[in-house]
Design brief:
- This protein has 235 residues and is an alpha+beta fold.
- The protein has one domain: 2-Layer Sandwich (Muramoyl-pentapeptide Carboxypeptidase, domain 2), CATH 3.30.1380.10.
- It is built from 6 helices and 8 strands.
- Strands 2, 4, 5, 6, 7 and 8 form a 6-stranded mixed β-sheet that branches. It has a two-stranded antiparallel sheet with strand order 1-3.
- Helix 2 crosses helix 5.
- The chain is globular.
């Protein structure tokens, strides 16, 4: 596959985004939503308290995800690892990564917070300034093909420079395996961005639509506020 490179001029993703104005759009389950979309709720399988066996997204984000899946070559699917994420799960992830940094010898709290900010959004119950996954507009995903999940260079939730979306674009003389990983990331990036999502540059698997981070990159207004709990009909 001859796939264009992932562009280097990604917008500054550290800028302070505007508060979200909630549009009232419902969330939908992704199981059975499209034959080109599979789910593997990673945090549920890892046993995180509060994690759901289903993956949910806002209706508009789900529609765009189906569009992205339709852009894949025949025989390929998107595999969704996480969508809407409760405050409980977000808090658990944040504290777990914090403790792992401390175990590695990090002692300066300011430096710890800065490192955390790169990879795990600070938990928030502010509905106008939610963490991305609390809005239902953020999705973590990969691609599967005829021979299984595509090689992406790292596992999901790898907190290293290898996880940066463009990491394999910067290798001057890539090996055959590195070219394969680079092209797989390119495929995911281009189908998702063509469908209207934006990528978080530190994580090849993380894409957003309608969120505050998406608004910063697209110069639009965010319209997905926070959702603190699932409707009873979805639980």
């Amino acid at each position: 596959m001859n796939i264009p490179p992932i562009p280097a001029n990604l917008d500054d993703q550290t800028a302070c985004p505007p508060p979200a104005s909630e549009c009232g759009e419902p969330m939908v389950p992704l199981t059975g939503y499209s034959p080109r979309i599979a789910i593997y709720p990673a945090y549920y399988h890892l046993g995180y308290k509060g994690a759901q066996p289903e993956v949910y997204l806002r209706k508009g984000a789900a529609e765009r995800l189906a569009l992205a899946a339709g852009l894949l070559p025949a025989g390929y699917q998107l595999v969704v690892l996480d969508g809407w994420r409760s405050h409980e799960v977000q808090s658990s992830l944040y504290e777990g990564f914090r403790q792992s940094l401390i175990a590695q010898g990090w002692t300066d709290e300011e430096a710890i917070v800065e490192e955390l900010r790169k990879f795990v959004a600070k938990p928030s119950t502010d509905l106008e300034k939610p963490s991305p996954h609390l809005s239902g507009g953020a999705v973590d995903l990969t691609i599967t093909g005829p021979d299984g999940w595509l090689a992406m260079g790292t596992d999901f939730d790898d907190f290293s420079e290898l996880a940066e979306t463009r990491h394999f674009e910067t290798i001057a003389a890539p090996t055959e395996k590195e070219r394969e990983i680079r092209d797989n990331r390119r495929l995911l990036y281009h189908v998702m961005t063509q469908a209207g999502f934006t990528n978080y540059a530190q994580e090849w698997w993380h894409y957003e639509y309608g969120t505050r981070s998406w608004a910063c990159q697209t110069k639009q207004q965010p319209f997905y506020g926070g959702i603190l709990s699932l409707p009873e009909s979805m639980e």
